[in-house]
Amino acid sequence: ALSLTGKGGQVIVTGMGNFASMDAQMNLFELTLLQKRVQGAIFGGASPRTQIPNLLNEYRAGKLNLGDLTTQTYRLDQINEAYDDMLEGRNIRGMVVYTDDDY
């Protein structure tokens, strides 16, 4: 990823590998002379404590359309079908919708 990054660019590492094998090799010449940066991030660098309330407020105000992000909804009694659909790639973002009877 570093070699594909332009001068002054930044590589954000978002995945964590096996704790036992965390070594990475990089070209320090390229890193220094081309002023590139490598940075780790968790949760996109956002604080869930502030970001989740902000997203909820945007959703309530109609500024955040979550409906388009959901490809299929399921009732709780369809949980096995939902899981099978996920494993078979039949939905991108499935959501289980709970009713009062489910509690």
Q: What order do the helices and strands come in, and which of them pair?
A:
Layout lengths: L9 E4 L14 H6 L3 E4 L7 H13 L11 E4 L3 H10 L5 E4 L6
Parallel strand pairs: 1-2, 3-4
Structure description:
This protein has helices at 28-33, 48-60, 79-88, and strands at 10-13, 37-40, 72-75, 94-97. Strands 1-2 form a two-stranded parallel sheet. It is elongated. Helix 1 links the parallel strand 1 (10-13) and strand 2 (37-40). The longest helix has 13 residues, at 48-60. The chain has 103 residues and is of the alpha/beta class. The model has no long low-confidence stretch (mean pLDDT 88). The chain folds into 2 domains: 1-64, no CATH class; 65-103, no CATH class. Keywords: Metal-binding, NAD, Zinc. One of its GO terms (biological process) is formaldehyde catabolic process. This is Putative alcohol dehydrogenase.
The largest sheet has its strands arranged as 1-2
- Contiguous runs where pLDDT drops below 50 for at least 5 residues: none
In round numbers, the mean pLDDT is 88
Strand tally, please? 4
Strand content: 15-25%
What can be said about the biggest beta sheet?
Answer: 2 strands, parallel
The number of domains: 2
Described by the principal axes of the CA atoms, the overall outline is: elongated
- Separation, N- and C-terminal Cα atoms: 47 Å
Order of helices and strands: EHEHEHE
Radius of gyration: 21 Å
Tally of DSSP helical segments: 3
Helix content: 25-40%
Jot down its keywords.
2 domains; two-stranded parallel ribbon; single chain
